[in-house]
Amino acid sequence: MTQKQEQLSKNQQIVLNIIEKAKGPLKAYSILYNVQKRGIKAPLQVYRALEKLIEIGKIHKIESKNAFIACKNSDCEISKATAFSICNNCEHVKEIKNTKLSKYLSNFVDNSGMKYKKYNLEFFGLCKDCKLKQ
Amino acid sequence: MTQKQEQLSKNQQIVLNIIEKAKGPLKAYSILYNVQKRGIKAPLQVYRALEKLIEIGKIHKIESKNAFIACKNSDCEISKATAFSICNNCEHVKEIKNTKLSKYLSNFVDNSGMKYKKYNLEFFGLCKDCKLKQ
DNA sequence: ATAACAAACGTTATATTATAACAAATTAAG
DNA sequence: CTTAATTTGTTATAATATAACGTTTGTTAT
After folding, report:
1. pLDDT tens digits for B97-132?
2. Architecture of domain B77-133 in CATH?
3. What is the CA radius of gyration of chain B?
4. What is the spatial distance between Cα B18 and Cα B4, in angstroms, rounded to a whole number?
5. From-to residues of CATH 1.10.10.10 in chain B
């Protein structure tokens, strides 16, 4: 019983469901194949839903993978502050929920005195499972 | 007189020159158009050079833009730790050189105790010029 | 309730970004 | 020199993403 999903349109709902059920990030065309039985036929329908879902913070794009993942973090309001860990071996992706980190980055001021409204951080390494197996 | 460039191959050299001369990040196909007079004819030739240049840390990929920029930061050895600021208005991109930030992120340990080998951070906001103009 | 507007939809076509596969040429090392 | 590794050239194609158009649905204000 998630709240505030009644405002999503039909296609947005379908695409979000697929992404939320997935274990990891999904690519746009893989989403497309998965939702064809539900009436979505064209890439653009998927991309439009993705765009909206990103806008309202329900999902994030993993830029280094061109893939999309459900937001598990109520803190990153409207995707202004996102951080992920990505396993180089099994490609497992996890959203990092760390208050210190997000505070540090949200308040970061560069050498020229600039502050930023938004950031996206991607960490790469081996996840615990893959570290053990090696 | 940059050092250590004698080891680059012809195509790698050509592509690097274009990227280093550019004011901002370049897209692969824009690089291609720019180097056709110098004998590079196919996308793959560009992508291969890009791959190598990234590998040896001469350039970075701006993931959110699918574009490539020369490394201006001798500190980010072999691109293990990259941070950029990106202007939402004029699309100006700048590599952030900030020792505190890079130390903070390189030493970051997440809630599960994981440390990471590599990260890429992209900040978004308005650059100084665009802030003034608004 | 309905006119006016905004948001979402469906569809076709196409643009943009990136890689596969294979053979030839070049370079580096033993 | 010759073997191995890297780089090159080339053609084809895969994968990712958007343009443009007209229609339908949903919202809001009267």
Report:
1. 999 999 999 999 999 999 999 999 999 999 999 988
2. 2-Layer Sandwich (3.30)
3. 16
4. 17
5. 10-70
Virtual CA dihedral for A81, A87, A91, A96, nearest 10 degrees? -20
Return d(Cα A46, Cα B131) in angstroms, integer.
34
Question: B119 and A121: CB-CB below 8 Å?
Answer: yes
For A87, which residue in chain B has the nearest alpha carbon?
B116
Separation of CA A40 and C1' D24 in angstroms?
16
Using CB atoms within 10 A of its CB, is residue A127 exposed (0-12), middle (13-18) or buried (19+)? buried
Å between CA of B28 and C1' of D10: 18
Distance (Å) of CA B8 to CA B53, B56, B75, B119:
9, 10, 20, 26
Compute CA A39 distance to the chain's CA centroid, rounded to the nearest angstrom. Answer: 24
- Residue with CA nearest to C8's C1' atom: A9
Residues B104, A108: Cα–Cα separation, whole Å: 11
Beta bridge partner(s), residue A64: none
Q: Give start-end residues of each CATH 3.30.1490.190 domain in chain A.
A: 77-133
Q: Which CATH architecture has domain B10-70?
A: Orthogonal Bundle (1.10)
A64 contacts B114? CB cut-off 8 A: no
pLDDT tens-digit map of A31-81: 999 999 999 999 999 999 999 999 999 999 999 999 999 998 875 667 799
CB neighbourhood size of A12 (10 A): 19
